Design the sequence.
C-alpha cells in the first residue's frame, strides 16, 4: 500500500514505506473522533479520502493475501505487535488489509466512532463482537424483538456452545431491563435501533444510561436505520451492521461491520485472542472496494427510501390498512424517534402491514408481485426495488409461537423494504391496483 501524506483530509500517494524506521506524524489506521460531528453525511465528507496507487481518484484494491517485508527482523516485530497497519505494515489479509481498513474508516465516520472494521457478513460481525465481549458463564440482556438469526444465536447457539446465557426483555420497559441486568455477570445489553420486523424504536440514551450505571457494554444493531439514527452519538458503545442491506443497496453483497472504540477493534484483531483473527470472518478486499464506492451516496438513497415509505404509510392508513411505521404520529415511538434521529433523513425505509392471517398476507404479496409489479417477494432490505416478506414464516421463523407473540409478530405481518425505482406515483398506482383486485376477491374491504 502506498505511503501517504494527509492534507485537509485528502490522502495522496507517495512511496511505499521500505523500512520500520520510516514514519509519518499523520499515520492513522482508524478514524479519530471528529471535534465536531453534525450528521453522517458531513462526517463522511470530512473523512480521509485515499487515492489510488498511481493517483487515481479511487483507491487501489490491495488484493494480496500476504505481504512482504524488506528486512527479516521486521516479521518478528510485526508478530509481537510492535509494527502494524498504523505504520503501513501488514501481515496477512485475515488480519488487517489496507482496502478493508479504508472501508472501516468510512464506517467509523458514518457512525461517529473511533474505529471500525468490516467482516464477511452481518452475523459474523454480531457473533464475533459478542464472543469478544462475553466469556463462558457470563450473561447478556437482549431485546425480545430481534432479527431471527440473532435471536437464534443468543437463545440457542451461545448457551449450547459457550455457556453464555441471555435474558430477553421488552426494552421499552426501562425498569424491567434494568432489573434483568445481573451486576458482575451481565456483560452486554444488546438491541436493535429499530427492531426487525416490528419497527419498535429503542430509547438508546435511556438504555445506555442504565447499562453504564452497572458497567455493561451497549451493543446496537443499526442495520434498519443507517443515517437515520447514530447510536454511538446517543450513548451506545458498539454499533454493528449488516452492510448487505442499505449500505450496499444492491442486494449483491454479503458483508458486516463492527464500529466502536479503537481498543475493541484492536482486541478483535489480536493475534492470540481476537475473534476476527481467530474465527476468520474475513472480508474480501474487492468487496470492500465496491462498498467504499457506494457509501458516498448512501445519504441520498436513504432519504428517498424514507420519503417513499412515509408517503405510502400515510396513504395506506387512509385506505384503512393496519400499517406500522414510526413516521406516523400514532406510532407509539414516533416522538422518541423524532427526538433521537438525525434531521432530514426521515423515519426509516421499512414499513409493515398487518394482514392478520398468513393466507391474507400471502395473497397480498402474490398480487403485488405477480399481477401489478409493485415489488418482489424476497427477504433482506435496502434494495432499490421494494422487497416483501411475511416475517413470521421467514426472517423471524427461528422464534417459536410464544416468542413471536411477545415480540408482536402476528401471522399476517408483511414486512416491506420500500424501494425507489420508478416514480412514486407509478408505484403507488400499482399498489392501489392490487388492493382493488383483493377487494374483488373479497379478501380486503376499504373501511
Sequence:
Amino acid at each position: 500500500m502506498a505511503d501517504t501524506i494527509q492534507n485537509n483530509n485528502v490522502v495522496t500517494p507517495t512511496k511505499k514505506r521500505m523500512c520500520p524506521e520510516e514514519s509519518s506524524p499523520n499515520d492513522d489506521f482508524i478514524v479519530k473522533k471528529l471535534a465536531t460531528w453534525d450528521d453522517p453525511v458531513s462526517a463522511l465528507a470530512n473523512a480521509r479520502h485515499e487515492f489510488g496507487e498511481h493517483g487515481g481518484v479511487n483507491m487501489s484494491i490491495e488484493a494480496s493475501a500476504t505481504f512482504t517485508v524488506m528486512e527479516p527482523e521486521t516479521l518478528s516485530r510485526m508478530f509481537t505487535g510492535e509494527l502494524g497497519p498504523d505504520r503501513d505494515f501488514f501481515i496477512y489479509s485475515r488480519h488487517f488489509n489496507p482496502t478493508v481498513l479504508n472501508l472501516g474508516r468510512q464506517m467509523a465516520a458514518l457512525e461517529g466512532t473511533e474505529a471500525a472494521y468490516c467482516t464477511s457478513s452481518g452475523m459474523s460481525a454480531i457473533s464475533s463482537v459478542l464472543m469478544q465481549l462475553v466469556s463462558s458463564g457470563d450473561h447478556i440482556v437482549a431485546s425480545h424483538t430481534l432479527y431471527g438469526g440473532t435471536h437464534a444465536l443468543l437463545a440457542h447457539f451461545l448457551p449450547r456452545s459457550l455457556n453464555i446465557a441471555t435474558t430477553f426483555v421488552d426494552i421499552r420497559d426501562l425498569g424491567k431491563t434494568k432489573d434483568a441486568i445481573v451486576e458482575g455477570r451481565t456483560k452486554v445489553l444488546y438491541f436493535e435501533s429499530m427492531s426487525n420486523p416490528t419497527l419498535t424504536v429503542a430509547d438508546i440514551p435511556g438504555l445506555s444510561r442504565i447499562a453504564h450505571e452497572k458497567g455493561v457494554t451497549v451493543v446496537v444493531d443499526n442495520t434498519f436505520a443507517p443515517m437515520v439514527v447514530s447510536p454511538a452519538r446517543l450513548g451506545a458503545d458498539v454499533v454493528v451492521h449488516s452492510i448487505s442491506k442499505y449500505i450496499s443497496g444492491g442486494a449483491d453483497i454479503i458483508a458486516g461491520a463492527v464500529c466502536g472504540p479503537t481498543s475493541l477493534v484492536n482486541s478483535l484483531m489480536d493475534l492470540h485472542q481476537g475473534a476476527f483473527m481467530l474465527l476468520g470472518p474475513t472480508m474480501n478486499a474487492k468487496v470492500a472496494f465496491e462498498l467504499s464506492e457506494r457509501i458516498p451516496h448512501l445519504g441520498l438513497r436513504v432519504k428517498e427510501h424514507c420519503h417513499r415509505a412515509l408517503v405510502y404509510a400515510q396513504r395506506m392508513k387512509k385506505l384503512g390498512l393496519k400499517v406500522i411505521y414510526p413516521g406516523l404520529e400514532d406510532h407509539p415511538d414516533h416522538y422518541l424517534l423524532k427526538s433521537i434521529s438525525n434531521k432530514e433523513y426521515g423515519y426509516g425505509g421499512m414499513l409493515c402491514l398487518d394482514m392478520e392471517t398468513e393466507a391474507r398476507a400471502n395473497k397480498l404479496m402474490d398480487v403485488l408481485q405477480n399481477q401489478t409489479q409493485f415489488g418482489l417477494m424476497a427477504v433482506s432490505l435496502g434494495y432499490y426495488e421494494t422487497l416483501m416478506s411475511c416475517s413470521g414464516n421467514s426472517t423471524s421463523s427461528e422464534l417459536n409461537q410464544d416468542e413471536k407473540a411477545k415480540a408482536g409478530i402476528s401471522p399476517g405481518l408483511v414486512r416491506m423494504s420500500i424501494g425507489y425505482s420508478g416514480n412514486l406515483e407509478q408505484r403507488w398506482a400499482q399498489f392501489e391496483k392490487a388492493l382493488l383486485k383483493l377487494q374483488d376477491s373479497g379478501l380486503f374491504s376499504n373501511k
